Amino acid sequence: MNLTLHSAIDDFGAAGLVVGEAVKFTAPKAGWKLLGVQVLGWSGFNNSTKTFPADRNFLIEVRDKDFNLLYKFADAQNMYFLSSIGPVLSGMEIPAIPVSGDFYVVFYDRGAMGVAMEGDAGTGNSFFYPINGQMVPAEFKAPKTNQTIKVNWLIRAVGK
Prior knowledge:
The longest helix is centred in the first third of the chain and has 5 residues, at 8-12. The protein is globular. The chain starts with a strand and ends with a strand. The protein has a single domain (3-159), classed as Sandwich (Jelly Rolls), CATH 2.60.120. It is mainly β. Strands 1, 3, 6, 8, 13 and 14 form a six-stranded antiparallel sheet that branches. A six-stranded antiparallel sheet has the order 5-4-7-2-9-10. A two-stranded antiparallel sheet has the order 11-12. Strand 11 (139-141) and strand 12 form a beta hairpin. It has helices at residues 8-12, 78-81; strands spanning 3-6, 20-26, 33-42, 57-64, 69-76, 88-98, 102-108, 114-118, 126-131, 134-137, 139-141, 148-150, 152-153, 155-159.
């Protein structure tokens, strides 16, 4: 798996504060409830100097298939993504949210950290949101070949 850390600030500058990494999920069965979100990310802890990054907030949103907001949660990135060895899979519990069909989890890194993405087998379920109020496929141009590469954000929806 080819993992890279991404921050919306890197691609969108100050506008990256309001652009999130979004993943489309489908509830596996009727009556399914979303109970948490897991994100593979890293806040940039410098292990050699033992320097902690300044606390900054990230934001998580859960949206239905029509992009209506179902839930949002914000907290400081160092509470979840501070690691001396690099990216860590961190989970955030949320109140049980009944979902059916398609729904989206949107993670706004706000330049506070990097979110892991893999570019070997993009599924087409990862997006940037909102770009002009729309979901835009998460894809990049390969610098050497100019080929479009779809990426997957490493974000999970946890429920039962």
